[in-house]
Amino acid sequence: MDFIDFSKIYSYSKLGLFEKCPKSYHFTYLDEVYSKMKSELKRDPSNIWPFYIIGRSVHDAITLFFYLPEDEKTAENLKEQLKLTWKSEAMPQKIPPLGKWGGFKDLEEERQYYRQALEMLANFFKTLGLSLSRKHKKLKIKYLPTKDLARSIEDYKNLIRPISGNFDISGKFDLIISADDDLSVVDFKTSKSEDYNNFQLQFYKLLAELNFKLPVNKASFYYLSTGNIKEFDLAKSDSEKIKKEVLKKIDKIQACKDFKPKPSKLCQYCIFRTFCPAKKEVSQYIDLPKDQDFSEDLPF
Q1: Domain extents for the chain?
Q2: Cys staple from 267: which of 6, 94, 278, 282, with CB 3.0 to 4.6 Å?
Q3: DSSP 97
Q4: Rounded Cα distance, 170 and 9, in Å
């Protein structure tokens, strides 16, 4: 296997982490001691949150659904996929209920989250799932994540592309659809908030075009909690300008000499919170009630 220098590869979430908190970025990617502790810290039940379990499980269930034979793509079989994906990364061999390994305080809370996951999948099936499998034959799936969920890192590796002589970009797509000679990127959101980051859309466009050599003229966010869909026209976005913006963000990180903490409510979800030098400022966020509708896109 060719050596991959992950230090020169940037994803949307990696760039976003620096913007959210330079110190957390340093802990995660640069610190010689703490960066090696990531896997161990993620296995600590105090660092496992239900919103992450539900987000990953729903995404994985949708992926497995698309791999089913055409005549098996039913609502009932979609529910069956959730039984396969309701797992804890910290304790993958744990048979549900996950309990503390899913960040759940008790069985009833886990049941509530599982019901929410089923509702999200029902919303997905009524919108994109049914239309792709039966209604619009002209729509074709250009890209799906691997169905070997335990090896999802391979998706990231396979999408690595250079944007300069020194740096590459990569990431993960939920789904890419092709229609005629252009592409549409689809991203599934499991949070109730319908906020979005325009840079995320631009980054997706650049990464998809570098990988598939076709124009990306549209991106869509599917908010599975509400069933709402937001579509964005990317046809006029200049890929070269996007590349320059990405490189500008990378240069800012490379030039940084003092990775200062940026305390916020994100601190309560940071696996390095107990090591942060800004403990006094961070402490006011640690004991806040946990947000039950936090974005599933946490970069750490």
Answers
A1: 1-31+138-263, 43-137
A2: 282
A3: P
A4: 7
And the tokens for 177?
Answer: 């659809």
**Given the DSSP bridges, would you call strands 182-189 and 161-162 parallel, antiparallel or unpaired?**
unpaired
Phi first, then psi: give them for residue 123, nearest 5 degrees: -65, -40
8 A C-beta contact, residue 299 and residue 17:
yes
Residue 95 contacts by C-beta under 8 Å, 6 or more apart in sequence? none
83-108 burial, b if ≥16 CB within 10 A, otherwise e?
eebbbbebbeeeeeebbebbbbeeee
d(CA 278, CA 127): 45
The dihedral through the CA atoms of 185, 28, 151, 101 has a sign that is: negative
- Please tell me whether the overall predicted TM-score, pTM, comes out greater than 0.90 for this model: yes
Which amino acid is present at 138? K
Q: In this predicted model, what pLDDT tens digit does every residue of 144-185 receive, in sequence order? A: 999 999 999 999 999 999 999 999 999 999 999 997 789 999
In the numeric block, which tokens belong to residue 80? 């069956």
d(CA 252, CA 243): 14
Is residue 228 within a helix (H) or strand (E), and if so which, with residue range?
strand 228-233
Q: What residues have CB less than 8 Å from 94, skipping those under 6 apart?
A: 87, 88, 101
The whole-angstrom separation of Cα 79 and Cα 171 is 27
pLDDT tens digits for range 103-148: 999 999 999 999 999 999 999 998 876 565 554 455 789 999 999 9
Tell me the torsion sign for CA atoms 89, 94, 97, 99. Answer: negative
CA 202 to chain centroid: 16
Q: Which amino acid is at 265?
A: K
Residue 43: CB partners within 8 Å, gap ≥ 6? Answer: 90, 91
How many angstroms separate the CA atoms of 263 and 265, rounded? Answer: 7
Separation of alpha carbons 219 and 173, rounded Å: 11
